Amino acid sequence: xxxxxxxxxxxxxxxxxxxxxxxxxxxxxxxxxxxxxxxxxxxxxxxxxxxxxxxxxxxxxxxxxxxxxxxxxxxxxxxxxxxxxxxxxxxxxxxxxxxxxxxxxxxxxxxxxxxxxxxxxxxxxxxxxxxxxxxxxxxxxxxxxxxxxxxxxxxxxxx
Length: 159
Known about the structure:
The protein has helices at 63-73, 84-96, 100-116, 121-142, 146-156, and strands spanning 7-10, 14-26, 29-37, 44-48, 58-59. By secondary structure, it is α+β, with helices and mostly antiparallel strands. It has a five-stranded antiparallel β-sheet.
């Protein structure tokens, strides 16, 4: 169980800080919820406490792992499936995993593809979503402002 002030990651949504734990009645059922404040976009997310493990909630990575994520972004170009539909599904699996290194891989590969060939509307949306997930965790891990983390990401990804 997490406490108020803990930094957590909610796969597909990103990282945030637990602001409160509240009991709410929804559809006649009382449940406890983590109220997580996101550092990017000033959004709040409510996560049922009982579902936290099931949905893959985990703690934010440490500073050392954040440095490793930045190093991962520097990796060379990667082979991408030519079929956009299959590539999209593979990337979605990586994002849903909640693994920050997998999300970084998606960001790197889509940024590289965008620079060379351009992206479809669906892949552009996926890139924006994956970037926000990645940035939100790195902001909390490195204690940096979102714009600085985004600049580092842009600088690290090779052409």
